[in-house]
Amino acid sequence: MKINEAVARTLKDVGVETLFGLIGDANLFLVDDFIRKCGGRYVGAAHEAGAVLMALGHASVSGGIGVATVTCGPGFTNTLTALVEGAKSRLPMVLVTGDATSKPKFYLQKVPQREFAIAAGAGFEQASSLDSVCADLVYAFRRADAERRPIVFNLPPYDLQWQDVGDYRPARLVLHRRASEVTDSADLEAAIGIVATAKRPIVLAGHGVAMSGAQGDVLRLARRIDAPVMTTLRAKDLFRGDPLNLDVFGISTLEPAMQVVAASDCIVAFGASLNFITTGNGALLQGKRTVLVNDDPDELGKHMSTDAAVLGDCGSAARRMLHWLDEAEIAASGFAAEDAVQAALATLAAPPPAAPARDPGAVEIHGALRAIAATLGEPLVLVTGVGRHMGHAWHAFHVSEPRLFVQGHMYGAIGMALAHGIGAARAEPTLPTVVVTGDGSFMLGDLTEFNTAVRERLDLVLVVCNDGGYGAEHIQFTGRDLDPSLSLIGWPDFAPMAEALGGQGLTVRSPDDLEHACQAIAARSRDRPILVDVKLDPDTVPRSY
């Protein structure tokens, strides 16, 4: 069997059903074998970065390992920004690429691919020999799962990929989950002591709680100590509907919840990283004792020191805390019943007031996003990009479980939301996917992959929050009383562009336009993406973080 076919067979044997990519010299024949001989699904991207982002979106929603493939040299270096996003998001992904031809020595597409991958924060796995290509590829998958980051798998030079590797042995991939049941220890005793003496505790659940299914145990602990509950952004909506839910803890925390956070004296965090987004650069934890439980040793002390840190499974840690609090007959704090907490909960349950846009050719962002969210209903997949619109989208749209929320902002790079959304939609094809992006992001990268969504016949609604330029930069100019005109761009109309690319395009400049757009969304065919260009007044879009 030739190397190309053996690699395709290996991908299929380890469970890859959908491969995202863009073909070239180094990978076109393995993609062809994956489709024709292995029966796999291939999603062809318009740009190599898009292929990697699609794989990341797929990994985020499916909980598995995303897989993409690109060619060597410029094809590979085009993926670097997306690889950084994947590394910072700690998403497992394998990127299959290969070396340029083995001759001539100074071939124009040759670059040091290992060095580029490592600089981006990804791992790199080189096929060590022609005979070991398949085994080395399986090892790359194991690394991606264990290290929770993209691993670049580098095939031999493409002129050698037609060599025979002998009889094919079916590949087998065994992944081992962390099994770290928390038992009694000095660390656990210190954490329990802090929880037992806290007067105004808040229980914070992170992505680790959502992924491990420990929310029931964590919620029972919160009830026992009478603490309100919050989540990190990545665990958005984990406790939605709970009477003591104060929503997201971090830079996008709403003002009523922020007042409760300020009054608290202890944060008991499970499965969180306590990074600068969650802690507001540490400001939200000042003057409070903190407890952190996480089954990943890399997260303990990575971003900040805590008063107590427990390594192990979040659910078992919560259960041991409950046991010893009951054994010691520790009274509940009573914090959740305080008037200030109850008032904050009541305020958060009411929709925020809408501020009218000053520009008669624009609408108000909160009302527009809430109307679209109500039209789509639930469940849905939510994907947000980078920009001043993103916090408003987090509050307007809700998901039935955190894995259905993809936030592509860990590198702070614009232009990546739609590609994330295509991968997410492929992971959950029975649900509608809504992607909320900005106008600058749309022009920088989302436009490139819109036709990919058309070709894939996705039930996808792309909401472009269009303030006519770069909103974050507009904020900085106006915040210093400077002329913001440099941040304002004369974009073309987006709706006709969507139509030209094979989708449906709608423009919203008024309440009547918004009503019409919502009707069109409700009546959509579900096999053709819709772009909704929501015109906003850059001077009245409020900050969201």
Distance between the termini: 55 Å
Major beta sheet summary: 6 strands, parallel
- The helical percent reads 25-40%
Number of strands: 18
User: For the largest beta sheet, what order do the strands appear in spatially?
Assistant: 2-1-3-4-6-5
Mean pLDDT: 93
Oligomer: single chain
Report Rg.
Answer: 25 Å
Outline: globular
Give the low-pLDDT segments.
none
Beta-strand share of residues: 15-25%
Number of helices: 21
Q: Label the structural class.
A: alpha/beta
Describe this structure in words.
This protein is α/β, with parallel strands linked by helices and 545 residues long. Helices cover 39% and strands 16% of the residues. It has 21 helices and 18 strands. The strands form three sheets. A six-stranded parallel beta sheet has the order 2-1-3-4-6-5, with helices on both faces. Strands 9-8-7-10-11-12 form a six-stranded parallel beta sheet. Strand 13, helix 16 and strand 14 form a beta-alpha-beta unit. Helix 3 runs parallel beside helix 5 (80-89) and helix 3 crosses helix 17. The radius of gyration is 25 Å and the shape is globular. The model has no long low-confidence stretch (mean pLDDT 93).
